[in-house]
Amino acid sequence: MAVLVWIVGCGLALALPILAIALSARAFRHYATPLAGVMEAADAVAEGDFSVRLAEQGSRDFRQLAHSFNRMTQELDRAERQRRNLTADVAHELRTPLHIIQGNLEGLLDGVYEPGDAHIEATLDETRLLSRLVEDLQTLSLAEAGQLELVREPVDVAELLADLQTSFSGQAEATGVRLEVKVDGEPKALNVWADYGRLDQVLGNLIANALRYTPAEGTITLSAMPNADWVEIQVSDSGQGIPAEDLPYIFDRFWRGDPSRPHGGSTGLGLAIAQQLIRAHDGRISVTSEVGQGTTFTIELPPGVRSY
Fold first, then answer.
1. How far is residue 248's CA from residue 284's CA, in Å, rounded to a whole number?
2. How far apart are CA 139 and CA 276, in angstroms?
3. Could you give the strand order of the β-sheet that contains 284-290, starting from the edge strand earlier in sequence?
4. CA quadruple 195, 297, 171, 271: dihedral positive or negative?
5. The overall pTM is greater than 0.85
6. Angle at the Cα of 67 (from 63 to 72), degrees rounded to 5?
């Protein structure tokens, strides 16, 4: 009996380490194989391949790791596409005014054109467009990076809309468009804690767009009202409207939709800047439109004075 116990004891003494090694090897393979896949995918990303994805399988921890990795590479891929598109768009937008400036100057030097006011003014207009494009790109870049400084103060929205009506009344009259203001609610309910100049910039851009696309005898309405937890500001026009297929893209950089629509010297960045500026104010901006019926841009901002 003692011999049997001794033999069993020796067997266990030998079997337990072997079993432990086998279990460790199995566990190592269980974790090492997926980790090798993660490391290989990470190396591919480091070399610039943002299309790589991991299979979301295995243990819960590795499924979560793969899911997070895939989200990261998807965002990197999207950011890289945006960067390439922006570079191409900027090059395209710079090319036209530069060609016009170069052509006008070469024509003057070669004696093709007389150095009259018309050609000098046309050249100057193109330099102004380039200046606006550079300024808009800088504003958009800072806003997207969250580095745009906002000078916040209490802003009376009703007063802001009245100022805008005065500023654009001359252009509206010149094009035969009625510019109206409608305010609903007590003045205190229409106060926001915001950068007056930036809000003026956003709304001014929306009004300029509305004037560009609203025919004579049309109407542009600026309105404000309290709405639940927001102060709602709208710029509505009775213009030609925006096709439904274009609506998802109008806040994209350099998006202009139908090439037959007038651009009026626009840099194509105004709505992208407007969206970023409203987001910087913790607000949101949206648009509704119907072809032939007009367009309404709606801005929602948190009301009252806030501490930052």
1. 15
2. 9
3. 178-183, 219-227, 230-237, 294-301, 284-290
4. positive
5. no
6. 150
237 and 168 in contact (C-beta within 8 Å)? no
Q: Do residues 158 and 190 make contact, with C-beta atoms less than 8 angstroms apart?
A: yes
Q: Position 186: which residue type?
A: E
Q: What are phi and psi of 151, to 5 degrees?
A: -95, 95
139 C-beta neighbours (distance < 10 Å), count: 18
| Kind and range of the H or E run holding 295 | strand 294-301
Report the C-alpha gap between 45 and 42 in whole angstroms.
5
CB of 197 closer than 8 Å to CB of 151:
yes
Alpha carbon 284 to its chain centroid, in Å, reads 12
Amino acid identity of residue 153, one-letter, is E
Q: Are 100 and 126 in contact (CB under 8 A)?
A: yes
- Section 295-304 average pLDDT: 92
Higher pLDDT, 224 or 253: 224
User: What is the longest distance spanned by two Cα atoms in the chain?
Assistant: 122
| Residue given tokens 């193109």 in the structure block | 126
Q: What are phi and psi of 272, to 5 degrees?
A: -65, -40
Residue with tokens 């007389």: 114
% pLDDT > 90, the chain: 32
268: CB partners within 8 A, 6+ apart: 89, 93, 253, 254, 255, 256
Closest CA to 209 of 297, 86, 92, 90: 297
Highest mean pLDDT pick, 31-40, 183-192, 282-291: 282-291
Q: Which neighbouring-strand residues pair with 48? A: none
